[in-house]
Every structure is written in structure tokens, then in C-alpha cells.
Amino acid sequence: MSENAPNRETHGFQAEVKQLLQLMIHSMYSNKEVFLRELVSNASDALDTLRFQAVADDSLFENDPDLAIWIEADADNRTVSITDNGIGMNRDEVIDRIGTIAKSGTRAFLDSLSGDQKKDAHLIGQFGVGFYSSFIVADRVTVTTRKAGEQTGIRWESDGGGEYTLEEVAKPGRGTEVTLHLREGEDEFLEPARLRHLIERYSDHIAFPIRMRADKSDEETEKPGEWEQVNRGAPLWARPKSDISEDEYKAFYKHVGHDFDDPLTWTHNKVEGSQEYTSLLYIPKRAPFDMFDPQRQSHGVKLYVQRVFIMDDAEQLMPRYLRFVRGIIDSNDLPLNVSRELLQSNRVIDRIRAGSVKKLLGLLEDMAEKRPEDYDAFWSEFGPVLKEGVVEDSDNRDTIAALIRASSTHDDDAAQKVSLSDYVARMQPGQEKIYYHTAESLAAAKNSPHLEVFRKKGIEVLLLTDRVDEWVMAHLTEFEGKAFQSVAKGALDLGEAETDEEKAEQEKLENESRHLLERLKAALGETVGEVRVTHRLTDSPACLVADEAGLSAHLERILKEAGQSIPMGSKAHLEVNPTHPLVKRMDGETDDDRFGEWAHLLHEQAVLAEGGELDDPATFVRRMNQMLLSLSGDGGNRDGAAA
Ligand code: ADP
Ligand code: MG
After folding, report:
1. What pLDDT digit, counting tens, does each position of 559-573 carry?
2. What is the pTM of this model?
3. Which residues surround ligand 1 with Cβ inside 6 Å?
């Protein structure tokens, strides 16, 4: 393996890899022993894959069916190696999997790092550094690997700078050997006792034997220098719950979830009877940085059949809206040769999925009740995803609705979220509907003119600001028997919350305003749908309202941004407040041109007040400036007919 070996090639890393490595080494240093756990986790995955592929083709065992992981330190050469006889990698796979950070959004991720070590360590953990964590303790890493069933081995080597080398090598045994050339000062990892301790602590749950050389100095050891198993070597989930410690559950999560953080919570169940399966499902603390990236390669729920790994991220096991769940499901009823296609329409899978969804929703309900702070943390990470379940999973719609948390006008601190049950319990006497408002941001929602009458009457309004909310609310028609009503849609009917007196007053106002409304509609033409007297406003002069079945202005903006065409006939209606001084003043305007300017200004400010964008902002500014100038020109006469 001299530098000029004939088949040795040098490759450059993606620009991002080098940068990520530097950051990782700095920010993860206080946690440097994670490398061992990560490499063992990869070895275990490779063994799982081999065992699965050998179900269809047992020649892949190459007469070596004893699947295991070997760990050995070499004090003379100052190396630690982690070896497995798993699936291995061929040349292209090596380039693709360890020469590349095959994650979309890596650039954006790097840009988001702050330079603050603690925060960055957390982010890098979320990103998942896996194999690269070797470079925390090693200044050179060699990977020698041969794919099961193939002839040529390949050696990858890098010092974590900008390049790596590749060369073909002879490798009799299949699988992968990762050798770490330790950095100066990392000699603690040459001590077998230290390595053994780390394995016991973090990798005991690995379902394959992990072997180390028996310690020569250990007097109880009968065969010093021979390989001996140092972990329990049985699948964690198959053990009785009472036998498994919290730490063991957490360590297993890091392996199965490819996460550096502890999980938020988990549920472990053995189902027996007509169908037998075990599930161990975790909810992470944090969403991966690319959770909403459709190209994300997610680590979801792994499927096992009778302890044999079958596939990663078996989508059929979890509905989309629970795609953040990690863990395993081990079925006793499926055949070992089950394929993805077969899972598509499989009764066994359907029942496992339904059962698992029930368990997970139960886990969330329980957390919401008993650990509300944890639940809030969960909601702020995964709420927008879980909400999709309202649309996707009509069987569990009520349960999911009860899990929703939303900002509301109940609390001045609108960041404080409420549940729908809280809302219903606080409804005013005579109030029949659950009112909500959707907007881009909490500030826009809170200050929207649409809320004015609700504030005045002390009626709570939910403030919904997630992208999915419009879509979710289109499917959520009622909760605990109460219908939902957008405050920005349809004719407002406050039911019994409005007194007869108020209703009479309103009617009178409408009659008196006929002429004004007609003039406004004539001036605005097709810019708006109808022009009508509002019920909603107390302080603002005007607002826009969609039809009951129409698109809210908010949704219209979302569609526009997404480049979608807006269905015809969904023009918003302008509602005006005839008691507002500005509107009164307009009503007295005799000059039709000036009235027209007023009318447009009224419409434009209604658009702006709800966070919308004007089609023609420059004209708005010109119009407003003209009005301001003319006002100062009329000698401060502000309360009545204009000159
Ligand atoms: P992850 O395990 O989260 O996919 P890693 O950075 O730990 O990310 O590993 C990257 C990829 O390299 C793995 O997905 C796997 O395809 C490959 N790999 C790493 N170690 C091994 C190994 N011992 N045997 C086979 N493939 C491996
Ligand atoms: Mg890994």
C-alpha cells in the first residue's frame, strides 16, 4: 500500500464534508466516545442486511454464517478496529455512502450553525454524523470492505482533510473493517477495559455477538487472548419489559433511530393471540433538520420478522403523519421473504399498523395529561405533522383533534397553547361554534381586525399559523359536537351571544348604509365581491371576508406562492364599519372621484391589515400621500363633510 500503488486513486470530498468534519470534531469532542457506538451500530446494520439478503440467497453467507462484530485495539500501531462480516460495500457504494454526505440541505444546515459549541453539538447530533464521528478521535481512518458475493475488496482511507483515497485490495472475508489511527492523546481507547466498558454501556443491546480478546491480565479468564463475547447479544425488544432499564431503552434508540439525543418517550408492546408481534416505538425529542424535505431519507420504523431484520423505514407500518416515529416492529406472522410489494396490501400489516397507531396516540394522550411540558415540547416539534392525521386518518380524527394545541386569544401570551377541550369548556353561554382564524404569523393573527367583535364579547378565537392549518380545518368540521367557524369567512352569526337589541341595532345600521354600500361597490367594481356592513369590526373601518366555501385570503396567498391558480369566483367581500369616523367622513364626500380614492384606500388597508400584499403597492402609496396632503390642506377639518 505504498503511496504510488498502481490502483490507488485520490478523490475529493464534497466541499461540505470537510467543513462538517471540522465542526463535528470541535463540537462533539466532549462526547468523543460516541464513535464506538456509531461504528458498532453500522456493523450491526450491515449484519442485519446480510442476514436478510441471505434469506433469498444463502450463498451470500460464503460458508461463514457466524455473524458477529469484532473489536480490537493494537497498542503498537495505536489503532482500534471494528470488524464485521456483514453485507460490505463495493466501490460505488463506498463512494456514495462514506465519500458523500448524501443529504439534501447539507449546505443550508451548515449555514445554520452558530459557532456556539454547545448549540452546534446539538444540531450536529440532529443532523446525524454517524461514520464521520470516527474523526473525533482518529486522524486517519481506513475502511477495508468487500461486498458479500463479490470478488474484489476496496480500501478507503482519509485523514479527514479534503480528500480520500481508494484502492482495490484482496479481502478474503466479506464485510467491513474500520481501522481508526488514533490522534495524539487518545490512547485511552487502546485500553481493552475502556473499550469493553463502552460496549457494555452503549452497545449491549446489539443483537449480534460483539467480541473482544480475553484480557491477558484477567486471572479469571481461562483463555487469555482468545475472542470472547462482551455483550448480551439478544434483541432488546424480545426481552421482558420489566427487565429493561431506561438507559438500555435509550441506548437502543440511538442505534435504531440514528439519533445522538435521547428519545422523548417510547412504548413497548407485545401483542399475543390471533396475531403476534412486538413493537418498540420511540418519539424523538427533536425533528431532524430536514423533516419537511420530501427527499429526506428517513429512518422510520424497521420491520423484523421473527427477529430477522427485513427492511428499514417500512412505510406501510406507519401512516405519513407519524413519520417522525422511530423503532422496530417484529412480527411472528409474516413470511421471512416478505417484499415491499407484498406489504402494500397485507392484512397482517394493516392490523399491526392500526394497533401501533392506537398505541402511539395513547402514548401521546398520556403524555399530554401527565407530562404537559413534555407534550408542549413534542407539539412544537411535531405538531404540524401530527395535524396532517386529521386529514389522513379519519378513523382516529377525534383522538388526533383532542391532541391539537393552538394559540388563542384566551391568553395574552398567545404563545401559550390551548387544547380544543379547554376551548369548549370556556365557551360563552349561547356560543355555538368554535371560532378560529388562520394567518401567516401569530402577530398577524392576533392583530387582525376580524377579531374585534370577538374581543369585545369575550369570545375566544383560536389563532392558527401553521401552513397545514387551512387544509386541516377543511377536514375538521366539529369537535365535541361543536362546529368550527373561521372568523374571516361567511356571514357572521354569533348565535345567542348576540342580544336582540344588538341585532336590531345592526339591522338599522344596514338600512341606513344602503347608499354608502352601493357607492362603494360602484367605485371598487370587480376588485371585491360584495360590499356589506360588518358585524365583526369595532375599531377598524373595514376588513375582507371570504365566502363560507371560498378560500380565505391566507389560503389564497399560500396557493399563489405555490404557483397554483386561484379558482374563479372566490373574490373576497369587503365589510365596512359605518360607525367608524373614517367611513362616516367618506359617506359625506360628494366628489365622486375623491370618493373613489377613499374607497380604494379602504380596500387596500383592509388587505394590508390582514397581512396581505397589494397588487399595486406604488399606486397605494401615491393615493395615500395625496390624501394626506389634501387633509392638511383642508385646515384640519377632520370630523364631517370634506371641503
Ligand atoms: P447511517 O448509519 O445513519 O446511515 P453513517 O454515517 O453511520 O449513517 O453510515 C453511512 C452509510 O455507510 C451507512 O448507511 C451504510 O450504508 C454505510 N456503512 C457504514 N458502515 C458500514 C459497514 N460496517 N458495513 C456496510 N456499510 C456500512
Ligand atoms: Mg450509522
Report:
1. 777 777 666 556 889
2. 0.84
3. 38, 42-43, 46, 84, 86-89, 97-98, 128, 130-131, 176, 258
